[in-house]
Design goal:
heterodimer, A: 116 residues, mainly alpha, 6 helices, disordered N terminus, B: alpha/beta, 5-stranded parallel beta sheet, globular
Chain lengths: 116, 471
């Protein structure tokens, strides 16, 4: 459905997956391959401190890997919003039901990871 | 409330942009959405760097490219780093999602729209994909043998082989493929069942059977009954019947929602019969018999029969590869019992063999969204174990399931699971992470209402789940 992007991804694969190096791209390569509407691939780093990482991964089925999208981006300052759901009625809001399944300490760890 | 709907709508556009970057047919093009993408991160053009762990020369083989297997392969690379070689073994070229497949039955989705490539696992994370299936495991030698005779060595083995379906009720695999589909793994049987339902006439009867728990996707059969009933009412007439013969004594998930659905929304169409046994089905004539809860013999003449038959871990039947390895160690020999922290097989402790997804017996329900989380817990445990550390002692998992009740309304079900170190298993938690609430075990939460907003959200949930799993 998006042939230009497909070519971009393939060129990254050829560059990155041969010798166990990290996948990456140069701006020059992506500018060459990228069609007009989409900018070059941004490589997002994961926080090197992994405390809270596994807990936070529970969020990704609905908010995308690393909390970058889905229903709502939660990576960064938006992560705090989860606390608003602690006072809502669980069966009226799936996010409230979800948030209330964690202890406060766990939610703080998740927020800290997503804001790192 | 208004802001949240707008926020959700914008998120949907973002998710569609992301989905187009990594996945297969049936998705909308990005043109026209470009302005919406300008101020947000489009996942379609964002890549996540692998972790720097210092691990080198490690090999993990993942068997099975379903929800659990794909997620495990991705996260083993994401969290293990470039020095953890991950090989994903899977026979099928495409993944066909069973989630949302009930919407093929009412004609609102195509099977093609539910099919996904696994290419992004390779291009984004460097997963090596190997076409094939497992025929044997040599636990002592740490190798797995494939159908093409390839022998793959491993430091850690992750088995996510899914389920196989019994010959049951007088039916065979050939009957499922050609006459009485279970369609409990989406694919050609889904298409067959759809054509059978579409050919029904006013006054016809659709009979579904539900096997004794555990079975994959607890709300799934009830959801299917609703979708079919709704379609028949709208397309065929008021006199069709959907008869649900449940081997279980009660509705297995979302009891309140489905009681409302059966007794109010689809009243007069759905007839729910719990506690049945001795089901027997004639695949040619579509005649059935069963024994009801009171011991009475019953007979039914159907036009369409959808037996959701008992299933078991793939390879667990006598003589199968999982059974030969001794790993089908649940009491009934159908499932692989695993450790709740690492998902290592309890039949072969210390051998580095993990089982996740529907094939495992781990205290979590069998469902794709849950399998995705099991895979993450397992991947994290393996990365730690490869680094000579111990698994996380407090893993948390979650399940979420949206169920269509009509062509445009849905319910949802969700639970968070905390690890109980005393009983060494996952338990539902609520009210701030507590497994006991007012003296009783915490329970899963079902939606208070069946509505169109839930149906819209279901689409976002599905796309995002697939992008986290396969993108």
């Amino acid at each position: 459905m998006y042939p230009g992007l497909g070519v971009l991804v393939m060129s990254l694969a050829l560059a990155a997956c041969g010798g166990g190096e990290q996948p990456g791209t140069s701006d020059t390569a992506s500018a060459r391959e990228t069609p007009t509407a989409v900018r070059s691939s941004a490589l997002v780093a994961q926080p090197s401190n992994t405390d809270g990482r596994l807990l936070a991964s529970n969020c990704y089925q609905c908010h995308g890997t690393l909390g970058l999208g889905g229903f709502d981006k939660i990576r960064g300052s938006d992560a705090n919003e989860v606390l608003e759901f602690l006072t809502k009625t669980a069966n009226k809001d799936i996010m409230a039901a979800h948030a209330q399944g964690y202890s406060t300490e766990q939610l703080k760890k998740i927020i800290a990871y997503l804001q790192r | 409330m208004n802001n949240q709907r707008i926020k959700n709508a914008m998120s949907r556009r973002r998710v569609m942009g992301w989905a187009a970057g990594g996945m297969a047919a049936g998705l909308l093009p990005l043109t026209g959405w470009a302005d919406d993408e300008a101020s947000t991160t489009s996942l379609g053009s964002t890549r996540i760097a692998l972790a720097s762990t210092g691990l080198t020369g490690k090999r993990v083989v993942v068997v099975g490219g379903g929800m659990a297997g794909m997620t495990a392969a991705k996260y083993l690379r994401l969290w293990g780093g470039s020095g953890v070689q991950v090989t994903l073994v899977e026979p099928d070229t495409l993944y066909t999602s069973s989630i949302m497949s009930n919407l093929v039955l009412n004609g609102s989705r195509t099977l093609a729209s539910l099919q996904f490539k696994r290419d992004a696992l390779s291009t984004n994370y460097g997963v090596i994909r190997k076409a094939g299936s497992v025929v044997g495991i040599n636990a002592g030698a740490h190798t797995v043998t494939l159908s093409d005779k390839t022998v793959l060595p491993y430091d850690r083995l992750v088995l996510a082989p899914g389920v196989s379906f019994d010959d049951a009720y007088g039916l065979t695999q050939a009957d499922y493929d050609a006459r009485t589909p279970h369609a409990w793994r989406a694919g050609a049987q889904t298409t067959l069942l759809r054509s059978q339902v579409a050919a029904m006439r006013d006054g016809d009867t659709f009979v579904m059977t539900i096997p004794k728990a555990p079975y994959r996707c607890p709300p799934g059969p009830y959801e299917r009954a609703c979708v079919v009933a709704d379609y028949l009412k709208r397309s065929k007439g008021a006199n069709c019947k959907v008869l649900v013969l449940d081997e279980n004594l009660t509705i297995q998930a979302e009891k309140h929602t489905f009681e409302v659905a059966f007794n109010q929304i689809h009243a007069g169409v759905i007839q729910y019969v719990p506690g049945v046994s001795q089901i027997a089905i004639q695949p040619g004539t579509k005649a059935l018999s069963y024994v009801d809860q009171l011991g009475g013999a019953q007979a039914v003449q159907a036009q369409v029969v959808n037996p959701i038959v008992p299933h078991r871990a793939s390879g667990s039947a006598p003589g199968g590869w999982l059974a030969q390895a001794g790993m089908n160690n649940s009491a009934d020999g159908r499932w692989a019992v695993v450790d709740g922290l690492s998902y290592e097989s309890t039949a072969l402790p210390g051998h580095g063999i993990h089982v996740i997804g529907d094939a495992s017996n781990c205290g979590l329900p069998k469902a794709g969204h849950v399998a995705n989380q099991e895979a993450k817990i397992c991947a994290d445990a393996i990365v730690r174990l490869l680094s000579n550390a111990q698994p996380d002692p407090h893993p948390v998992a979650n399940s979420a399931c949206f169920s269509p009740i009509t062509a445009n309304t849905a319910s949802w079900l969700t639970a968070v699971y905390q690890y109980d170190a005393v009983e060494r298993k996952m338990k539902i938690a609520s009210n701030g992470g507590k497994t006991m609430v007012n003296g009783s075990p915490a329970t899963a939460t079902e939606a208070a209402s069946i509505n169109g907003d839930n149906f819209e959200d279901m689409g976002v949930w599905f796309k995002t789940l697939m992008s986290d799993t396969a993108g």
